[in-house]
Design goal:
heterodimer, A: 29% helix, extended, B: alpha/beta, Calcium-transporting ATPase, cytoplasmic domain N, Rossmann fold, 4 domains, seven-stranded antiparallel β-sheet
Chain lengths: 321, 891
């Protein structure tokens, strides 16, 4: 305490010397580049297939008025796409749907849910946050709010040749969500019964904790372009395999110019394919080493002797003190 | 600013209480106060001495002596403290913010806005409460001090201070002396700090001029107005006299073997050394006449007769006065004395000459009748007659020699002034003392030197007597103009100048029409000494200097008459323990010794400047870097006002996660250690040049913060979106990306401060790295709450991001990328444009070789600004002078 009040606590005063600076830069650079290489390697080992289908799946005659097409429930929404596997893909292969220009992070949208209702069901009736999707015909809606109302409802099935690929759609949501956020005894009620149908229907006999598509969807994305896990293919795909996808193109992204994509991707220890991380590491690592070299050069060519008194202001020549 | 002015108002109120200045102005306005109004506030009081009971009833009931300086009491604390808090713009702003967060449209939850406000206001109020409590305790202490009060018939009873009432007669036990001559370390006789073995060991008794020596000491021991005081158990005597230097002479004479031991109405007893035998004998001298000292005569004489009936006149006085009155055969020592005088004066000592003459009885008798007659005269011509009589006898003197007295200032004052001058401060001496004393003090603390060009601003006799304001103003104005012309013409570096202003001249010079010219002159001079200034003038000078120069002013003083000046200056410093508490109570800082000012300014002032500027800049940085990420997110969320971070993250940002290292920076940072600050007072000029808090720097930091925020945001979102975050294919959602980005912000903000801090104590380390650790601990704990409370944060670290290698790798990358620009900048700045403190730091801590000790000292030497005041400047001047002389003799 005495030392503290007397401002005389023992202290270390690291002084940036050319040696310490240059070695710091070097070491950091040398540290960063391998991380970059490892990350890049991990990312490159990931095989990713992206297929945009929102416009291709609209029949030609509706291409000019996609909204009319999607809103017309009489028109069948079947669509099939074919993908060629470019490289051997080791199971598990994750299937994502990707939406672009879809502002799931809009403030009004994000808040339009009731976490307590999701967990406790109808016992919990303060669902003002869900307005306008909190009740219909005087009965509460479970799950309420705009997010669940707009649940994604395209479905996909995959065939290799004629064999249907088994898609595991379990465990695509976070475990904590299933166990703690969505009630085991909460069942959908009065859902999508209004005049405006947003998205998917829910099976009223399955508790919310098992409605994994809903759980995944309710995890609002941070950016207007996002992927959501759809399922896993649990067998390897060989290179040049042709995968046929039969999908139901139900979801209306046309009214706001959103795009829909289907993504098949393996995952490394670093997750999906993303070269940016590795490149950034390599770039910054090289940058550090170049800087270290520049500083060595500068130091050799034009050294300021360490602690050289000529640099103190009172020794400046010609500058009046 | 709001607070300062509030404090000032309070201060003024109190100062009025102390100095009763609230009574003064009104009474002058109203020369004949109404009888009924007497005793009312603003008018003179009727006091019945020793009859306090009369003051217990109306109409002469006055307030009790109970002192209360507390701001609050139990009832008023809450409303008043809250009012004080919300008078601050910042708090009001946040209150408004909190109010706006209540309606539904607000992007933040009300808790997240109200909690930090409550926290901050709560802490400030707690501080207020603690401060007020200690003020209360202080009051208790003062109120319960004991004092002896006269009850009746000379009996005194003890009472506490608060029980005193108007009309009480109290016994004052500790009289405070104004300038107690303090001594150095050795010898320990008070008022005496002299070393010369020839004198101390009485070796002079074998010399050739013993007789003159004896007479010299007799003058010292007899020509004064002092009286001896018993000093308990000591064999030595103490003295009381009109002036401190008389006491000094008496003490010195005692040390040299001429002890003045008793004084009766007409006889002075001296215990003096008999040079032939070496033993001490007691002699008595009849005091026949005393010719008093006054500033016009500048001398004092006594006429005494010894046991043998011989009559002597002993005289001491200013050099020019004595030299004019010497006999032709009395000039044996004149040449030597002149040389001594100039040496003494050079050293800032106050000099005086001693002379004597023997008077024949007949001559004395005739003169005495004249003198007695003059003394007995009543009327205007008395002075003149006395003067004439003195002139008759004080002539044909025999010069004995010179004495020099050091005006012993408080310990360390000259050194302190020297350091302050080197630190680039301009010093003004404002004193109520007369001009001679003021100049002596000026010499003693090296504000004045003999080679300085002195400009005196004095009212001329004619102007003074003319009583016409116009004439007086003209007179002063022309003096100012002349001095100004002279300074402008002369080369300033070679001829330092000093301005000495008399109180009366000051009164004119401070008039609004002239004050600008006066200040223009004063600012040009290297030192300014104002003598005979009133307290009001002191305050006025402080204000005018502050306003005219626009510089920061500091006033330091110890007496009640300095209160106005202390309050007026930007920084008021009171010296405690000398003359009561008024100055201390009015001040921002109180110091027990003047020389602590050196440490206060050069060490703590320098540190504080660095700390506060670093702290504010860092604060700007951290909030801009953090806040901008929120704005960038709006671009990606359709400007819907969505927040990327959980409300609680935002609450904790400035409350817990980044606030503590700032405190460590603001409290513990030292660019260089205290002793280095003192060795290089020039470092203080960093503050005067404001190199640490210029607009360039502020914008530089804002730019850095902007770069940081861009780096944090773009790198995070480009890496985390849209591909999977983890090996199990799961992607990051809003909560995950927000948390990861926030982690990066916390790391960067805390690492950035680690790059700013140059002085790492264990507290700094604990607070910086602890803050980062705190974040993870918070995340774990937050994740353990029920999902209703933690929402997106539920199990977030344990389940989702903590187990993803991506999270840690991204954090590291973002930290490196973001801090790199600042790091490179600071390396370049340090390598090619180092600041003074950095070079000194390098010399001090980096160089281990002892061989550079000389260089260390040389730099100390170099750093000394060529000052014109302070003793270093005096030494320089002396060296220059000697060199010139050497040069001349060589030729």
């Amino acid at each position: 305490m005495y030392q503290f009040t007397q401002q005389s606590l023992p202290a270390c005063k690291p002084v940036l010397t050319p040696t310490s600076v240059i070695s710091t830069l070097f070491l950091m650079g040398i540290f960063c580049i391998p991380i970059g290489l490892l990350s890049l390697h991990a990312s490159l080992s990931v095989v990713e297939i992206v297929e945009r289908y929102d416009s291709e799946c609209v029949p030609h005659q509706f291409r000019l008025n996609k909204v009319a097409y999607i809103k017309d429930s009489l028109i069948p929404k079947n669509c099939s796409r074919y993908l060629k596997v470019p490289k051997y893909m080791k199971a598990p292969i994750y299937i994502y749907y990707q939406l672009d220009n879809y502002y799931q992070n809009h403030r009004r949208y994000v808040k339009s849910r009731s976490d307590k209702q999701l967990r406790y069901g109808l016992q919990y009736n303060d669902t003002r946050s869900c307005i306008p999707e909190e009740s219909n015909d005087g009965l509460p809606i479970v799950p309420c709010g705009l997010i669940s109302w707009s649940l994604f409802n395209d479905t996909h099935s995959f065939f290799r040749g004629t064999d249907e690929l088994r898609i595991n759609r379990k465990n695509i949501a976070w475990k904590s969500d299933r166990d703690h956020k969505f009630g085991k005894h909460v069942f959908p009620f009065n859902f999508q019964n209004g005049t405006l149908i947003g998205g998917a229907m829910l099976d009223p006999n399955v508790p919310l904790s098992d409605q994994e598509d809903l759980i995944v969807w309710m995890r609002t994305a941070a950016l207007p372009s996002f992927r959501k896990l759809y399922g896993k293919i649990e067998e390897d795909l060989e290179a040049n395999d042709v995968i046929s996808i039969y999908l139901l193109n139900n979801y209306n992204t046309y009214s706001f110019g959103g795009r829909k994509k289907l993504v098949l991707s393996t995952a490394s220890w670093l997750g999906g394919r993303n070269n940016f991380l590795g490149m950034a590491y390599i770039a910054i690592g090289s940058c550090l080493i170049v800087l270290a070299l520049v500083f060595i050069l500068l130091h050799v060519k034009n050294p300021r002797p360490y602690g050289d008194a000529m640099y103190v202001s009172w020794n400046w020549k010609g500058i009046p003190n | 600013m709001v607070k300062a002015s509030g404090k000032r108002k309070q201060r003024i109120k109190w100062s009025k209480l102390y100095t009763f200045s609230c009574l003064n102005p009104r009474t002058t306005d109203n020369d004949a106060p109404n009888q009924q109004l007497l005793g009312q506030p603003g008018f003179s009081r009727v006091v019945f001495c020793n009859q306090p009971e009369l003051h217990k009833i109306k109409p002469h009931k006055y307030p009790s002596n109970y002192v209360s300086t507390t701001k609050y009491n139990f009832m008023t604390f809450l409303p008043r403290a809250l009012f004080e808090q919300f008078r601050r713009v910042a708090n009001l702003y946040f209150l408004l913010g909190a109010a706006l967060s209540i309606p539904k449209l607000a992007p933040f939850s009300p808790e997240s806005m109200i909690t930090p406000l409550v926290f901050v206001v709560g802490i400030s109020m707690l501080k207020e409460a603690i401060e007020d409590w200690s003020r209360f305790l202080q009051d208790m202490d003062v109120n319960s001090r004991k004092v002896k009060v006269h009850s009746r018939n000379g009996y005194f009873v003890e009472k506490t201070w608060k029980e005193l009432s108007v009309g009480d007669v109290v016994k004052n036990s500790d009289i405070e002396h104004r300038r107690i001559p303090a001594s150095g370390k050795e010898p320990t006789i008070k008022g005496f700090n002299f070393r010369d073995d020839r004198l101390m060991d009485k070796m002079w008794i074998h010399g050739s001029n013993v007789h003159d020596m004896i007479m010299f000491f007799r003058v010292m021991a007899l020509c004064h107005t002092g009286i001896p005081v018993e000093d308990g158990n000591s064999k030595r005597l103490k003295y009381e006299a009109e002036s401190p230097e008389e006491i000094t002479f008496l003490i010195a004479a005692q040390e040299f073997g001429f002890k003045f031991c008793q004084r009766t109405q007409s006889v002075m007893f001296l215990q003096e050394l008999e040079p032939s035998s070496g033993i001490e004998v007691k002699r008595e001298y009849k005091l026949l006449n005393l010719l008093e000292f006054n500033s016009a005569r500048k001398r004092m004489s006594v006429i005494v007769s010894n046991e043998a009936g011989e009559i002597f006149l002993f005289c001491k006085g200013a050099d020019n006065i004595i030299f004019d009155r010497l006999a032709d055969n009395g000039r044996i020592y004149q040449q030597a004395t002149t040389a001594h005088l100039s040496n003494y004066a050079e050293d800032g000592l106050r000099t005086m000459l001693f002379a004597y003459k023997k008077i024949e009885v007949v001559e004395y008798e005739s003169w005495n009748t004249l003198f007695t007659k003059a003394k007995a005269t009543v009327g205007t011509e008395r002075e003149e007659l006395l003067e004439h009589a003195s002139e008759m006898i004080e002539k044909d003197l025999f010069l004995l020699g010179a004495v020099a007295v050091e005006d012993k200032l408080q310990k360390g004052v000259p050194q302190c002034i020297d350091k302050l001058a080197q630190a680039g401060l301009k010093l003004w001496l404002l004193t109520g003392d007369k001009r001679e004393t003021a100049m002596n003090i000026g010499f003693a603390c090296s504000l004045l030197r003999h080679d300085m060009k002195q400009f005196h601003l004095v009212l001329s006799k004619e102007a003074e007597s003319s009583h016409q304001l116009k004439a007086v103003e003209e007179d002063i104005l022309s003096q100012i103009r002349n001095s100004y012309q002279e300074i402008v013409k002369g080369n300033k570096k070679d001829a330092p100048s000093a301005l000495i202003v008399d109180g009366k001249a000051m009164e004119v010079a401070l008039r609004s029409e002239i004050s600008n010219q006066f200040l223009q002159l004063a600012v040009m001079c290297d030192s300014v000494i104002c003598c005979r200034v009133s307290p009001k003038q002191k305050a006025l000078i402080a204000r005018l200097v502050k306003e005219y120069t626009g510089k920061t002013t500091l006033a330091i003083g110890d007496g009640a008459n300095d209160v106005g000046m202390i309050q007026e200056a930007d920084i008021g410093v009171g010296i405690s323990g000398m003359e009561g508490m008024q100055a201390v109570m009015a001040s921002d800082f109180s110091l027990p010794q003047f020389y602590f000012l050196e440490r206060l300014l050069i060490v703590h002032g320098h540190w504080c400047y660095k700390r506060i500027s670093k702290m504010i800049l860092y604060f700007i940085y951290k909030n801009v870097a953090f806040g901008l990420t929120l704005f960038y997110n709006e671009i990606y969320s359709n400007f819907s006002g969505d927040d990327l971070y959980d409300d609680w993250y935002m609450v904790l940002f400035n409350v817990l996660l980044t606030s503590l290292p700032v405190i460590a920076l603001g409290v513990l940072e030292q660019d260089v250690s205290a002793d280095v600050c003192l060795q290089f007072p020039a470092l203080y000029q960093q503050g005067q040049r404001n190199i640490c808090f210029s607009w360039k720097r502020i914008f530089g930091w804002i730019l850095n913060a902007t770069l940081s925020s861009v780096a944090i945001f773009t790198v995070t979102i480009y890496i985390l979106s849209p591909a999977a975050l983890r090996q199990d294919g799961k992607v990051a959602d809003l909560a995950h990306i927000g948390t990861i980005m926030y982690t990066c912000v916390i790391w960067i903000v805390n690492c950035q401060i680690a790059l700013i801090v140059t002085h790492f104590t264990w507290i700094t380390h604990v607070l910086i790295w602890g803050s980062i650790l705190c974040w993870y601990i918070f995340l774990v704990l937050y994740g353990m709450l029920l999902p209703e409370h933690s929402q997106g944060g539920f199990h977030i670290l344990i389940e989702a991001i903590g187990t993803a290698p991506m999270y840690w790798i991204v954090t590291f990358l973002v930290v490196v990328v973001t801090l790199l620009p600042y790091f490179i900048f600071s390396i370049i700045q340090r390598s090619f444009y180092p600041m003074d403190d950095q070079v000194i730091q390098e010399i001090k801590y980096g160089r281990t070789d002892v061989s550079n000790k000389p260089m260390w000292l040389r730099e100390q030497q170099n750093s000394r600004k060529r000052t014109q005041i302070g003793f270093s400047a005096r030494v320089d001047a002396k060296i220059r002078h000697l060199k010139e002389r050497l040069h001349r003799t060589k030729k």
